[in-house]
Protein 1
Amino acid sequence: MTTRRQFLALTLPLALPLALAAPAVLTSARGARAAADEVFNTDGVAVHGTDVVAYFREGRVVDGRPDQVVRWRGAMWRFASADAKAAFEK
């Protein structure tokens, strides 16, 4: 059985850029946004609460902290540090 961390490690590098770029690429921005929200929004928390900045900086799945949150595209994005949060906001 694949764990959540294994699943994210395998799918995040492929799916995240597509989901974030989808509204600009596809003709139906509303449909693309809904599809991205379904994939990345679990109970209002994006990518199961993992830090997407740390993933690309460190090359591994890092859990985000509930006190380091940015609301973007209808979801709460969690980050492991204030530095990662600031990088995402840029």
Note: The beta strands are 41-42, 45-46, 65-72, 75-79.
Protein 2
Amino acid sequence: MSACDACLHRAWLLATLSGSLEAARGARRRIREVLALSDEELVAALCTPQEALALAGAAPAPSALRATVTDAGLRAVCRHDVAYPSRLADLRDAPAVLFAAGRPDRLTQLVGGDLEDGPRAVAIVGTRRASADALQIARGLGRGLAAAGVCVVSGMALGVDAAAHEGALEGGGATVAVLACGPDVPYPRSKTALHRRIAAAGCVVSEMPPGCPPMRWGFPARNRIIAALGAMTIVVEAAERSGSLITAEVAADLGREVAAVPGAVTSWRAAGANALLRDGATLIRDARDVLDAVVGRGVAAGPPPPELSRPLQTVLEEVAGGRDTLAALTPRPADAAPALAALTELELLGRLARAAGGRYVVVPVVH
């Protein structure tokens, strides 16, 4: 664990003043502006002189803070350490510490360093009350990107976020969840199993210390981390007043690419995403569009993939269309053997990847 004393104190301060930060949000103060204050300015802005004096006397020793992190089975890395993701330095209100369920150096490996170097990471966000189509799209994006070696970053919320994480895990890749509570607190509780899988394959991170419950101010705060970690932020489905639009706004402010999946013009769920497209966001239909925009830029062209026979092309198209298991492809038992042979050949050619549950995912070809 490599977080310094001063940064651990800052994290403790945020947790201790969480109720005051919630009141500031309720008073329509911009949380990002409050989080950009120094420790002294933050206490002065949120506390009376008497409260500030009591707070100064209540601060635990750094060793006690470290023990709390260790006891929770977490790691902590601060902005002064090489394991801290350099992309977060673009934030004026960058978190002092990231607490991680998993190894902090694993986080840096997943999201890369500078935008032009190392592995790419893409943020996928959207509404909690997602349509069936949006859930399928988010899952497909996660699968395709993970199969191509791109890390998927999201917030593990119900709906689009969770679907993107699940797709990334199915695609055999790693994914990063950024929470508004302590990283050891699965939120929502219904996603406890997903939290465990993400921590095992990638990382669950937060700027909040272990055990902290979620509060409303924490969600726009965590959105800035999601936006900063991704080379692109994709909004799959979002209403006009969706928190996902905050993530897109932060991404745009940081000079990151903003993208959206188009939706029906009559759907309230798609109004926010469609507005982003109207204002110039990149249109995304599938993982290939993302790879063309993020990975393909500046990457030397390789040889074109070999031509597929018509039977193999048919199977590939069927898998891309959602019939992604042997059972789905073969309603008649007699068809199982040739379908399995085709799936195996496509896997050997690198056109399909095997995912959890006997599913197959199409590997996007970048050239």
Note: Confidence is low (pLDDT under 50) at residues 297-303.
Protein 3
Amino acid sequence: MLKLSLIVLAAALTIFGAMEHIIGQTDQLIWLHYVFKPLTTLLIFWVAFGVRHFNVRYRKAILIGILFSLMGDVFLMLPLTLFKSGFLLGLASFLLAHLCFLRAFISDTRLVSRPWIFLVIGMIGVINLIILWPGIPGELRVPVVVYVICLLCMTSQALARHLVLKTKASKLAMAGGLAFMLSDTLLAYNKFNAPLAHAALLILATYYLALYLIARSVKTY
């Protein structure tokens, strides 16, 4: 309960710092975002690391994935005036994170064990890409497509895995995968389509929920 309380507090401060910067048009509290965004991810890492009963290969892959997510947090939050390649490096970091999560999800379940899930999730991804395509800069189109394919595979495998295992842990991982897909979809529409109302709240809340659920899925039941 203490860990969850600290995560919620740190996430709230992260979101507040980002929203204050956007709504108030000021940088007075943006430091909250810079400090607590990576700290929240570290606290979630602590959750997975502190689990006692776990599958060794599964936990290792999840922990590495959370660390890559931490790298992505840092790259994406840096201002473009300070680091122009931040978005691309952040995208690469989260791509590696999803590959790690996918590795965890195939550690105890065959890949594409439910092909229809991959087909449905893939169709959703294609529809989103068609809508977003005009707003994606030319130099980012290939990286974005590669990232989307990786994200969709991770999410699809999380769903398929739960249908096979049907455990509390696999349900947490499935929910985490879906939350990650939602968070990244919101981020993509906000960046490449049109600004969303309360974007920081929606994107970060679903992102931290996704990471927390995936971290919790490390525990075996």
Note: The mean pLDDT is 92.
Protein 4
Amino acid sequence: MTTEDFKLALIESPFFRGMQPRHIHELATQAISERFPAGEFIFREGEDAQKFYLIREGRVTLEVLAPDRGVSIVQTISSGDVLGWSWLFPPHRWHFDARAVEPVQTLTVDAHWLRGWIEADHDFGYEMMKRIAHVMVSRLQATRLQLTDVYGA
């Protein structure tokens, strides 16, 4: 894939929609494409969170392991969604497992580079924080609904 392909993928994503063209361009120059087969973990809870993902194709479950209940799916995300916010906040460890439900293709950006850019360019950093906060609220609400279902049963 080319930088232009990555720019188009970013522009079409709800997460990045409306972001300044210079920010889209810079992100696209740093992105790589990754593929994960169905059933593969993209990351595991507790591992270093060193990547930020935009799902281009496929579906991913966010899971948590509860010793007395087994695996609970917190949320399923798909094309156009972003995966991961733990890379932004110390200690930079994943809070969930992320598993490909079907073959997944991502646009992936190195989190170390991204954190540096967020610190250096406060306009970009503010835009990313607003967007990541929205993702965090969505994940928190999904987790709350799962807990309500577990304890309500």
Note: The first strand starts at residue 32 and ends at 36.
